[in-house]
Write a structure and sequence with these properties.
InterPro entries: Citrate_utilization_prot_B (IPR012830), NarG-like_sf (IPR036197)
Number of strands: 0
Protein name: Tricarballylate utilization protein B
Transmembrane segments: 102-123, 129-151, 214-236, 242-267, 288-306, 312-332
Number of helices: 14
Largest sheet: none
Strand content: under 5%
Keywords: Membrane, Transmembrane, Transmembrane helix
Helix content: 55-70%
Order of helices and strands: HHHHHHHHHHHHHH
Distance between the termini: 28 Å
Length: 355
């Protein structure tokens, strides 16, 4: 990891450790105040535990123009971003996406979409509905490796993170407590439950927490919809398309709507937020990730609404291109932050147990 980022984060953490004014703000400060010397492992863990709510910045008396010039949200954001890029496998792809995320997202979606349309132009796949455009066996052959690759890549990244933060043996209780915190997005509620200062300086708001929850639960519903469809196809010999009152549709439509609403909301908050309190170099990658999620959800809903029209082949190509791009780019987008957050929360539960 970059030594200059770690050096600056260490300097600011030492000042915060002496002050302790923000002790109750989020999970970062109890963990920070337990340390006396901040190693690379400490700083990497603190950075990934931070949710960038920015409450500490607006409460701090040592921000610029004070000579200490504290900006802990930015310092931790830069260490956090650098850790994701360092632990990613392969790492060069992660760095490239952070610099040009929006362009890469658009290019891959359009590129794969054109490729799927080309398959259609070569002739019908011989099936009905969606499978007339691309056969089921072809979809499996394309998307199964694309689904397994990011899982393998993320597993390698998380193993590197766990080793770097000196994580120990994980217990059942630690997993349960970490998942409970992640499900409620407790840290985005702020230390006193008032929310983040993310969107408008020192005004507290729950907007960022609710937008994240909309995206997360929307994504989980869509994943459950796909799982239900897979079970129906292979377990009950019931291939798609499915009617409205089927389980895949009852899970997928609300999930898609939540993702569309959540991604638009997050993009709006991101555009209003002060970039100097985060990692400016990662802004393009973050917006690219939001765009990918938005395209996956919107094209899926469009495919459901217009699946019986002549627009279906083009919509299916865009949707499949969006999903394939999302899978292949997942290890290098901010999607991976959910896995790191969970690992950081588990690691924090270990700290509490040891303390």
């Amino acid at each position: 990891m970059q030594t200059d980022l770690l050096r600056e984060a260490r300097r600011q953490a030492e000042i915060c450790n002496a002050c302790r004014y923000c002790e109750g703000y989020c999970s970062v400060f109890p963990a920070l105040h337990q340390e006396r010397f901040f190693s690379e492992a400490n700083l990497t863990q603190l950075a990934n535990l931070c949710h960038n709510c920015r409450g500490c910045y607006y409460a701090c008396q040592y921000t610029a123009p004070h000579e200490f010039d504290l900006n802990l949200p930015k310092a931790l954001a830069e260490v956090r971003q650098d850790s994701w890029e360092s632990f990613a496998w392969p790492a060069p792809l992660a760095r490239r996406f952070q610099k040009s995320g929006v362009m890469i997202a658009l290019a891959t979606v359009l590129g794969f979409g054109v490729l799927f349309l080309a398959f259609r132009m070569l002739g019908s796949a011989g099936g009905s509905g969606f499978y007339a455009v691309l056969s089921h066996s072809a979809m499996v052959a394309i998307f199964l490796p694309a689904f397994l690759f990011p899982l393998m890549s993320i597993a390698v990244s998380l193993r590197r993170y766990w080793t770097a933060t000196e994580g120990g043996r994980i217990t059942h209780d630690q997993i349960v407590d970490a998942f409970a915190s992640a499900a409620k997005m407790k840290n985005l509620a702020g230390g006193h439950g008032d929310g983040c200062n993310f969107e408008d300086e020192d005004r507290f708001s729950q907007a960022r927490r609710f937008a994240h929850q909309a995206v997360m639960y929307g994504f989980l519903l869509c994943f459950a919809s796909t799982t239900a469809g897979t079970i129906l196809h292979y377990g009950f010999d019931m291939p798609a398309p499915y009617p409205f009152w089927s389980l895949p549709k009852l899970l997928g439509i609300p999930g898609g709507l939540l993702m569309v609403i959540g991604t638009i909301w997050l993009a709006s908050l991101k555009l209003k937020a002060d970039q100097s309190l985060g990692a400016p170099s990662a802004w393009g990658g973050e917006m690219g990730f939001i765009l990918l999620l938005f395209l996956v959800a919107l094209s899926g809903l469009g495919l459901y609404a217009l699946g019986g029209t002549t627009a279906m082949p083009a919509l299916l190509a865009i949707h499949l291109g969006s999903v394939l791009s999302f899978f292949l780019l997942t290890p290098y987008t901010k999607m991976v932050h959910g896995f790191y957050r969970l690992a950081a929360l588990i690691r924090d539960e270990q700290r509490k147990s040891a303390g």
